[in-house]
Amino acid sequence: MERAKARKQVTVVKGGTIFTTKTKRGVVEDGWVVIKGGKISKIGTGDLKKELKGLKATIIDAAGKVVLPGLVNCHTHLYSTLARGIRLADYAPRNFGQCLEGLWWRLDRALTYEDCYWSALVGSLLSLKAGVTTLFDHHSSPYCIDRSLDSIAAGMSEVGTRGSVCYEVSDRDGQDRASLGIYENVRFANTLKGGAGSRIGAMMGLHASFTLSQPTLMRARDAAEDAGIGYHLHVAEDKIDVKDSQKRYRRRVVTRLADVGILSTKTLAIHCVHVNDSEIRHLHDSAANVVHCPRSNLSNAVGIAPVGKMFRHGVRIGFGSDGFGPPSIMDDARAGLLSWRIAESNPAAGWVETELMLLKNSPIIASMLLDTKVGEIAEGYAGDLIVASYDPPTPLDRDNLWGHLIFGSFKVDTVIVGGDIVVEGGRSSVVDEEKVFEKARAVAAELWERT
Ligand SMILES: [Zn+2]
After folding, report:
1. Gap from CA of 269 to ligand 1 centroid (Å)
2. E strands along 26-121, which residues?
3. pTM for this one?
């Protein structure tokens, strides 16, 4: 599955302002980063000749630009890329359940393998162009489940992104499809065994507590344990999830999941909007990874997650987009900061924490789940870098990058994933963008007809 056509023996980024380990404020001015075998092998300044002696190197000139580690999106739905601008005459949701029933579950039932592939390809490409080099996809296509993850992974790989895929198991389309979903996650995970060098990982996708019966949840858990994969599921996104869990299982959502045994360091617990103190303790004690998706939460009017409280309890929280476009995870960081402040009526709230969530926690989560160190420009880390144009109206130095990221606008010029140059001059360097977007528009138009 590893892409090879864009691979170079050695890739070097030279010049510019290199923010190496952002949370430690490491900066190298007019230096260089050498990537060998997909990983960062050396960072330095001065003469490069010695480093490159005898090697065939591709050199990216970053003079006058800013060099950053690639960003991470811990939760998205790539198929939602094909929903942009969709017209559904009778769609006027009054609550979260109607958002799912009226749009997303109608759309996912209409997906074909071709839709899966093209949505993954174009969604990944848009993410790369926004500086996201690693993404965690959560996929649903109930009428083409078997091998759907191959289509998603192929689309992601075609444009050179790094990430993880999973199929969202649910009983909402019947137990047979729930079983097929479990099988698909295990099947895909097994295809990766022994496949050293793949940039795509596997997880056990689960929709959410309120569409998962106890037998299905337990079968998914047993299958995931056998396959050695973690879980990726929506948790207490809306009150509907909490009410269902209390009514059917006499406990709240996080408690139910903890009791079944699916909360661990390998779990992505998406949203966690409606969690109480006891559940926050479960999340902390299990070391599960909470993924905050503020733009989605605001758009679906489900509430504002208690990120401040979770942070203070030591819960590890990263950021996800939940398929909300445009696919810039920076926009989620901004929305997260603003909604945090309004929720706590505190104009100073969340500044440091939001930076940590985006630039430290999300990469830590990705590194654990993908077994590859990402998110820093440091020796031994994956060669995932962004070179961005940025001409600030104020000084940019080692201590104020975060202020520039939140209030400024970086224009992504070059993106490198595992040493491969996948975006150059703001455009894909591995696929013909015009043809890709033309095809995606045609596929989307047909999908909308069927939805
Ligand atoms: Zn989601």
Report:
1. 10
2. 27-29, 31-36, 39-45, 57-61, 66-69, 71-76
3. 0.96
